[in-house]
Amino acid sequence: MAYDPTDLRSTLPTGKPAVPERFSGSEHVKFGDLPPVEKTGEISTWYARGQNFVVSYSDLDGTALFPRQDQPDEYVVLLADDGLSATAEAGGERVTVSGKTMLVMPPGDSTVTITGRGRVLRLLTTKSADVAALAANAASYDEPHENIPPFQPWPDPPGGFRIRAYDLTVPSLANPAFRLYRCTTFMVNFIDPKQGPRDPAKLSPHTHDDFEQCSIVLAGEYIHHLRWPWTTNKANWRADEHERVVAPAVTVIPPPSQHTSEAVAPGTNHLIDVFSPPRFDFSAMDGWVFNADDYPAPR
Fold first, then answer.
1. Which residues of 182-213 are buried (b: 16+ CB within 10 A; e: fewer)?
2. d(C-alpha 1, C-alpha 44), whole Å
3. What pTM does this model have?
4. Do the beta carbons of residue 222 and residue 110 sit within 8 Å?
5. Which sign does the torsion angle of CA 282, 277, 182, 156 carry?
6. What percent of the chain has pLDDT over 90?
7. So where are the chain's domains?
8. Which SUPFAM superfamilies does the UniProt record give (predicted)?
9. Which CATH architecture has domain 20-283?
10. Which of 81, 87, 83, 82 is nearest to 119 (CA)?
């Protein structure tokens, strides 16, 4: 409910934060409709961003080298397919992995060499200004979006910064079927692919008060349903959205819009979610974050 501050009903307890007066819109970056920003041989790469993060998406068939120099903070590399292998190097350490894997790379200089055929995601914060500038929607963030506090990384890992690798094929939680990992800069929910459309009678509309949700469609087709609150000022109202996206695509869902994503393709549909910084609510649930011991939550 939204009431003018002089209306006594505005003092009624709701148990929820006050609805803000201004809102930012969503971001839908459909890589399939755009030429790659970078193309070398059989490797094509696109970029999209949110307030705090950049998503790099690469289609790879061969070998690709992804170096970072003077990286200001931790970043994530996701091998999204079984046919990929990677060698990660940083700080005198060398780690080799294969198959669906999440790599957390430390600040400083590093290199990830990836071989095979499949999809590679890199997640970096917007402190990596060189990468942020490549995003297809970079201009949308010339001014900060509404209702998002300044970015604060989570505490340094007790064992110090180093390369960490996490298997993305381990059993998920039962219900919800999440597979959650975090580091100082990101939380990743690597959900398993689903077959066929989602039951429209079992959608899950919900809101986030003060952070963006990045939904990355890796396979299939989805409709992202979004609805913004009504405030006392009609000039700030936004129309509902029912945006259809086909893989590969990135959607950034702004707070505090109500939203849910509906898989609609008859075959395989695969969507994963990314948050930067990590979510407090998921982190507060005992056993939900699989690598919580490596990255404790703020006190």
1. bbbbbbbbbbeebeebbeeeeeeeeebeebbb
2. 47
3. 0.94
4. no
5. negative
6. 91
7. 20-283
8. RmlC-like cupins (SSF51182)
9. Sandwich (2.60)
10. 81
